[in-house]
Amino acid sequence: MKDKDLTSTANSGKALGEKSSSTEIASFLKAVSNASLAKSGRLLFTLDATNSRQPTWDRAMDIQAAMFDAVTKAGGLSVQLVYFRGFDECRASKWVINAAALRNLMLNIKCRGGHTQIAKILNHAYRETTREKVAALVFIGDAIEESIDSLCQKAGELGLKGVRCFFFQEGHDGTAENGFREMARLTGGAYFRLGPDSAKELAELLGAVAIYAQGGIKALSNSDKHKARLLLQQMEQ
Questions:
Q1: DSSP, res 12
Q2: The model's pTM
């Protein structure tokens, strides 16, 4: 799939343009199948692909690609992949329900050195939800190299639009944690740090976010999955 280069609009100040086991995937599919699928939800799946993530990149790619496979089989969820890396490079795929193409695109992404571009992702999310409702944004990263106050302003604007943001942090950078936590709070989303068993954690947590994106708070409340309850607790704080 040819992705869309979002870099060209970035400087204008406007909105953008350990492999998972079969048991983990089966668990994810079961959780998602229990969600309310009255209508298709829309989920933005966003990634930091800068060099600081290289040490864990291959493992992360395996599990994240497996999650796209699970979403494809479950149905009822429209997904868009957005990632940044290198010098001023930020790209977005098309919105798709069959996420196999996104899986292949993700597997071909290579880390490149550069600063974080989280503002572009938040701007892009705002534009997308203005066009058609976006239920949730997932971000996976390990650093923030931008003004946290500016990012929080953008996150607050997304919160007013009803877009909940879920931040998953690799590593232990305190500045990043503070920023991710505050942006999650402002949008009514949640923050989690990915630990040593991050592949399994990410599978379960993304399953919970998918339940929310498809069926909302009610579907999340009805889920008997531990990570779904954990996610709901944070969202209700």
A1: G
A2: 0.80
